[in-house]
Amino acid sequence: MESSLCALLLLGTLALQETWAGPRSMRHFNTAITRPGVRQPRFLTVTYVDDLQIASFDTDRQCLRSGPQAAWMERMVQEDPWFWERETEILRGAAQMFRVALQNISVYFHQSAGGVHTLQRMLGCEVSPELTFQHGFYQFAYDGRDYISLDLETLTWRAAVPQAVNTKRIWEADRSIAEGWKNYLEEECVTWLKKHLEMGKDTLMRTDPPSATVTRHTAPSGEVTLRCRAQDFYPKEISVTWLRDGEEQPQDTEFIETRPAGDGTFQKWAAVDVTSGQEDKYTCRVQHEGLSEPLTLQWEPQSSPTWLIVGGIAAALLLLLAVIAGVVMWNRNRNSA
Ligand SMILES: *[C@@H]1O[C@H](CO)[C@@H](O)[C@H](O)[C@H]1NC(C)=O
């Protein structure tokens, strides 16, 4: 009995490793925003492992919070009671660094004090399916545009705008700045990512396949669109396409960017313009790594929800009657035996 249970568990882990073929990543997104009349800019951080938010920090709350779906963070803190304290200190330090950087940069852009500006940083690492370092990134944006980034190969800084040459000069004068980040991204970031993948594997290694529905909409002008909606899936990567007679219709299709549902799963839809009466020529195809084969769906006019409910209740009643009849017959047979 015990050995068969072990075999089952082993199969379970093997299957888990096979489904996640893509790279795994950890990313920190920092944002500092100046506020008129307030000396300290607001500083926000969100940290992701793959497509799941594991932590967030906001200077207005002065606290670091774990992501709602990252239950393993609690265990991580129990194992290492100073973890939260240390991370919070690091983030307070980063907030200071961003405050100074915002001052420098507004001077480089000849901007007067008191305006509203944002400085963003994205840093993180990506590992192969074998969990070895693959890519690292460390880049800044000012007021929504690329500002400067680190080239990990050459350990040089790339200024995306002329004003950033000032920062490039300061940072290249001290090579230990680039070396420090390279070391963080290649070593420490990978160590943390592996730790999260290990402790949070039930959440992070899962694949939730999408469910999908097709709805039909008529605009006031009489134009007809079919909308194919995929939801409840994880990870985020998905393909939703409309085919007409087996051919993809990208020109006539409107896609929305894949969006988080807020519960750790994602949603996407694609809508195609059709000529009324031609609906049956269109098929929606949904591909996701949680599906062993693509979902294909069509608009089905007759499958209105009330019909399904009435039909479902009728079927359930029939089943119940059959079960009662079966029990009565069985009792009768037993009593007569
Ligand atoms: C801002 O200036 C300080 C002092 O010169 C320097 O240490 C820091 O790296 C600068 N930051 C940026 C983003 O230019």
Structural description of this entry:
- By secondary structure, the chain is α+β, with helices and mostly antiparallel strands.
- It folds into two domains: 2-204, MHC class I-like antigen recognition-like (Murine Class I Major Histocompatibility Complex, H2-DB, Chain A, domain 1); 211-297, Immunoglobulins (Immunoglobulin-like, Sandwich), CATH 2.60.40.10.
- The chain is built from seven helices and 17 strands.
- The chain is extended and about 95 Å long.
- Residues 1-19 have low confidence and may be disordered.
- The structure holds 2-acetamido-2-deoxy-beta-D-glucopyranose (NAG).
- 2-acetamido-2-deoxy-beta-D-glucopyranose (NAG) binds at residues 100-101, 104-105, 167, 170.
Oligomer: single chain
What is the approximate shape? extended
The average pLDDT is 88
CATH superfamily of the largest domain: MHC class I-like antigen recognition-like
- The helix fraction, in percent, is 25-40%
